[in-house]
Amino acid sequence: MSKLDSLMIQRTALALRERVGDEPCVVLVSSAADGEGKSLVARALARALAVQTPGRVGLVSLQPEAGAPAGPGWRDLLESGQVPAGTDTDGLWELAAGGGALAASSDVALFRIDAVAQAVQALRAHRALVLVDGPTLAACGALVPQVNQILLVVNSQRTTDRALSKAMQAANVAPERVAGVVLNRQATVPGWLRGT
Amino acid sequence: MSVSYQQAVQAAPLFSGESAAVPRDWPAVVWRQGVWVLACTGLTTVLALAFIKAQVPLYTSAARVWVQTEQQGTPSFLSGITAYRESPLQDPVNRKMETEMELMLSRTSIASVIERLNITEDQLARTPMNQVRTTLNRWLGRAPLPTDPVRMNALVDIFLESVSVAPQRSKTAETASNVLELRLECADRELAPRALAALLENYLRVGAQQNRRLGESTSRLIETKLTDARSELAQVEQRMVDLAMSASGQGALTAGALDGVSAAPRDITPPIGNASLRIDLGMEGGTAGHSQAVSLLRSQTLEMQARLEEMRQLYTDDADNVRSLRERLNQARQRLSQGVREGVRVGAQMARLERERALAQDRYVELQKKYDQIDLYLKLNPTEADSRVVVDAPQLPLPEEGRKRGSLAMLAPLAGLLLGLLVAGWREMTDRRLHGAIELARLPGGLTVLGSLPRLSDAQRQQLLGARSR
Q1: Chain A residue numbers touching B28 (CB-CB < 8 A)
Q2: B34 near A CB under 8 A
Q3: Which SS3 state, helix, strand or coil, does residue A134 take?
Q4: CB B196 within 8 A of CB B316
Q5: What Rg do the C-alpha atoms of chain A give, in angstroms?
Q6: Among A residues 79-108, those touching chain B with beta carbons less than 8 Å apart
Q7: Residue B467's pLDDT is what?
Q8: Pairing mode, if any, of strands A129-133 and A87-89?
Q9: Per the CB < 8 Å rule, is B465 touching A182?
Q10: How far is B31 from chain A (nearest CA, A)?
Q11: Mean per-residue pLDDT over chain B, rounded
């Protein structure tokens, strides 16, 4: 990864921080469709934010990942309302999906309004800024109205305006609740072609 | 208070329909659609090269013909033969030139050239479509037979596409000269001038034949009429001779009865032309003999009357010699009155026959004059009497003339590039993907771009995510 790309991520993280302000905040990272790069963007931003403000940033993964640490996770948070310990690496607190084989039903769990509200509230109290690496907008369920802001990831090579509009309409996401959009896989135009 | 998505949609149209690209973005557009630009350029170049390779070299032969429109017209000997030939309005020059051009490229003439020179499709300059059609037909085994009229029609069509005729444009004014340039494009270098020469020959022959054929048919018609006129004249003259002979015979008979005066004609051969003089002499002789006989008869009658008066003084009326003389006198008087009546009748008949002979002779002379004129015209060389002059005969094209396709090879990549740019522009206009801030800002409510990530390789992704990448 080039230095320029690292700077771009840092700059994006800074822009996100400016958008959400200083109040404790839970930001849902989602997209219109699967495979747009939510986890990549969420993790990269979380790490960049952790570099900027170590110890105040958290990353919660709602879907099980290969190589994720075993132990209590998001599902346990939903069940108990208590924030599990998670892991803390380089100033970034991380909480995995948890639940092992039960992960398949985690999407349904997101529609439990009270549990989700309680979990989000607990996260907000736990860290100043928590990024939730969520599913697609249509599958976020009760999470959308509970989080403070939504960060949308758009695959610029694939996602159309119709698809994004339709997803936002289906999840009833108001535009001002969207903190911003991160364009993934954007074609890079060489500087000489841009005249710079 | 937050605004729902539906409220935002109502506040702003879903899509403005405006193009996302402004001139400053065009390089980026070209970069994004670079594959299409390259593909179109490459494809067009390859197609052009294939087309050039498939094209056979073409050779053009040209000829020029000067059409002397002021000398065009119907020969004078045809004047009066048919009413429609004496049109008071002459065709304007441009119409005459148009007619000449149509005559040059008549299908009959072209078919004759094709047949005479055994021209095949491969020898002619064919359009790419014709070439493809012919090749396909060959592959499919549907090539028409050489004797097929459809094939001849197709060949004529191809020939017509290869040949052009146009008047030479003036270099100083908005007008055209009377010199027509005929150009023929052929794949066969040797064939081009030969086919063009044959086409010209047909054209010149058609023009000359028109009047020539008319002259020949008119000549045949006049010849028939001339024979009739000659026969009619001979008949009239024969009747005159017969009349003169009968008149002479009667006169002689009358005179012979009295004094043996003969008025026989000096020649009774049926005359034509120079022989008319003898006819005239014969006629004059015939009528003169009759008049002399009547005069003689009259004088004899007077003489007999005088002798009768003398004898009556010497003898009584009952005397034999007086009675005899009186009877002879009565007979002479009867013959005299008969001769006078006959003379009047013969004179009237002779005058009528004379008129008939004059008419027949005039007709005969007029027809003979026209016949001589047409005969003279037909004996002339057709090209000498023609108003079309071949100024430049068809020339054999130079060998390098067939290699004029280089410009296409140079233009094809440029055309391909242009096509690629058009395709790129079209794709960009119809592209609904969210490439940047402009497209996102157009969404209802407007979305802000916080940042962007380029395409990352797997290694870069691993580096960014650590071991837990997805």
Answers
A1: 187, 189, 193-194
A2: no
A3: coil
A4: no
A5: 17
A6: none
A7: 45
A8: unpaired
A9: no
A10: 6
A11: 77
Please report how the helices B458-465 and A38-52 are oriented relative to each other, as an axis angle in degrees rounded to 10. Answer: 40
Q: How far is CA B19 from CA B118, B162, B311, B427, B429, in A?
A: 61, 47, 154, 11, 6
Three-state SS for chain B is CCCCHHHHHHHCCCCCCCCCCCHHHHHHHHHHCHHHHHHHHHHHHHHHHHHHHHCCCCEEEEEEEEECHHHCCCCHHHCCCCHHHCCCCCCCHHHHHHHHHHHHCCHHHHHHHHHHHCCCHHHECCCHHHHHHHHHHHHCCCCCCCCCHHHHHHHHHHHHHHEEEEEEECCCCCCEEEEEEEEEEECCCCHHHHHHHHHHHHHHHHHHHHHHHHHHHHHHHHHHHHHHHHHHHHHHHHHHHHHHHHHHHHHHHHHHHHCCCCCCCCCCCCCCCCHHHHHHHHHHHHHHHHHHHHHHHHHHHHHHHHHHHHHHHHCCCCCHHHHHHHHHHHHHHHHHHHHHHHHHHHHHHHHHHHHHHHHHHHHHHHHHHHHHHHHHHHHCCHHHHCCEEEEECCCCCCHHHHCCCHHHHHHHHHHHHHHHHHHHHHHHHHCCECCCHHHHHCCCCCCCEEEEEECCCHHHHHHHHHHHCC
Task: Identify residue A16 by its one-letter amino acid code.
Answer: L
pLDDT recorded at residue A125: 92
DSSP designation for A68: P
Question: How much is the average pLDDT of B270-282?
Answer: 47
Residues B228-244 pLDDT 10s: 999 999 999 898 888 88
- Count of alpha carbons within 13 Å of B219, Cβ hemisphere only? 16
Helices and strands (H and E) in chain A: how many: 8, 7
- Dist CA A127 CA B452 (whole Å): 26
Contacts of B375 (CB under 8 A, 6+ apart): B219
| pLDDT surpassing 90 at residue B280 | no
**What is the spatial distance between Cα B84 and Cα B95, in angstroms, rounded to a whole number?**
19
Give SS3 for A6: helix
Chain A residues in contact with B441 by the CB 8 A cut-off are none
* Out of B9, B454, B468, closest to residue A65 by CB: B468
- The whole-angstrom separation of Cα B436 and Cα B22 is 13
**How do beta strands A178-186 and B59-67 pair?**
unpaired
Q: Which residues of B376-413 are buried (b: 16+ CB within 10 A; e: fewer)?
A: ebeeeeeeeebbbebeeebeebeeeebeeeeeeeeebe
Residue written as token pair 């001979």: B234
pLDDT mean over B281-305 = 74
Residues forming beta bridges with residue B163, ordered by sequence position = B184
- B2 → closest Cβ in A40, A176, A181: A176
Q: Is residue B430 less than 8 Å (CB to CB) from chain A?
A: no
Whole-Å CA distances, B21 to A56, B36, B282, B292, B435: 41, 17, 119, 131, 11
